[in-house]
Amino acid sequence: MANVPVAKLEYIWLDGYKPTQSLRSKTKIEKNFSGKLEDCDMWSFDGSSTQQAPGGSSDCLLKPVFICPDPTRLGAGFLVMCEVLNADGTPHESNGRATIDDEDNDFWFGFEQEYFLWNPETNKPLGFPATGYPAPQGQYYCSVGAANAFGRDMVEEHLEVCLQAGLNIEGINAEVAAGQWEFQGFAKGAKQAGDEMWIGRYLLEKIGEKYGVSINWHCKPLGDTDWNGSGMHANFSNTLLRTSGRKEDYDAVCQAFAPFVKEHIAVYGADNHLRLTGKHETQSIDKFSYGVSDRGASIRIPIAAVQKGWKGWLEDRRPNSAADPYKVAARIIKTVKTAVIPA
Fold first, then answer.
1. Can you give the C-alpha Rg of the chain in angstroms?
2. 3-state helix, strand and coil shares in percent for the chain, rounded to the nearest 5
3. Any idea where the GS catalytic domain is (predicted)?
4. Is 173 exposed, middle or buried, given 0-12, 13-18 or 19+ CB atoms closer than 10 A?
5. Could you tell me the CA-to-CA distances from 270 to 130, 173, 196, 224, 325 in Å, in that order?
6. pLDDT digits 0-9 by tens, 223-267
7. What is the rounded distance in angstroms from the CA atom of residue 251 to the CA atom of residue 223?
8. N or C, fewer C-beta in 10 Å, the chain?
9. Beta bridge partners of 320
């Protein structure tokens, strides 16, 4: 592409808040910009304002790692996903992307991002009355109609903007609870899958500003009720799973997860004990199981993989909606690499 005379680059990063990080961003004006990632300069920010540095030594660095067009801005706009580095150039402790061991992009990830559209005036999901509850869940999943689907205009706009940005969004649907939706992303490479999911989240938050609607990423925002929680199911594969052709290989990969339940739960999102109860299509947080087409298991073996002769992928159903896809991918990759594949 020809160089852009004046470009607006939105540098996006994750802050240091615990247990759940938030998105931050600021705009950089570049003249005669090529639109290429390699021409995005390193930048810095005040880490003392994001819980990433003390005030006396507050500079943190922004390393651009992914770029795409920004359809939400007039003129030439770009979204630039960044890793946070310490002032000496080493990865900051909040930098989950730097922990991913997938330099050859052998691991492919597809994340199913659930969320609630939230009315800040009532502090309830869209579709909920100011007092009490709407009709019980059941009628809202993949629904249509003003009595069932709430916030569709905003959801459709988000889908369109993601596609215009060049993100590999694979679909959207209304979810089980009123005001709950999902979008799905996929990439060949764990780092890019995380990059695109965070950009997708950023665009959803930004579009919500226009509609006066917040995004509630919490995994169980309606508390101890019969309403579903929100997850970010992680579909993953590597060359072995995509080409295996043997049930024994799938069993070996799934069994490799059993010794690392605590390690996975540690990065699968805060308050997951509220969601992983063994109800509402989940396994209990302290147990591990896997099975073909089992949505009550920790890991589901899709029936499609079986029908294709044990060639496909697996779905870890435990990550919740607020989990960091970088950290989820990093932990899954680490565990899969421990699998002992039978001869």
1. 20
2. 25, 30, 45
3. 91-343
4. middle
5. 27, 24, 22, 16, 13
6. 888 899 999 999 999 999 999 999 999 999 999 999 999 999 999
7. 35
8. C
9. 231
Contact between 78 and 70 (Cβ < 8 Å): yes
Structure tokens at 152: 């569709």
CA distances from 160 to 69, 267, 281 (A): 13, 31, 30
One-character DSSP codes across 236-247: EE-HHHHH---H
Structural domains for the chain: 4-95 (3.10.20.70), 108-336 (3.30.590.10)
Angle at 187 between CA 326 and CA 159, to 5 degrees: 95
For residue 190, the SS3 value is helix
Is the model's pTM score more than 0.90? yes
In DSSP terms, 43 is beta-bridged to: 62
DSSP states of 249-310: HHHHHHHTTGGGHHHHHTTS-TTGGGT-BS-SS--BTT---EEET-TTSSEEE-HHHHHTTS
Q: How far apart are the first and last CA of the chain?
A: 50
Q: Characterize the bridge pairing of strands 214-216 and 232-237.
A: unpaired
Q: Which residue in 331, 316, 218 sits closest to 264, CA to CA?
A: 331
- Distance between CA atoms of residues 40 and 35, nearest Å: 8
SS3 state at 89 = coil
Q: Distances in Å between the alpha carbon of 301 and those of 108, 109, 251, 277, 310?
A: 16, 15, 10, 20, 9
Tokens coding 186: 């996929």
The crossing angle, in degrees rounded to 10, of helices 325-336 and 190-211 is 160
Cβ atoms < 10 Å from Cβ of 232: 27
How far is residue 246's CA from residue 225's CA, in Å, rounded to a whole number?
Answer: 41
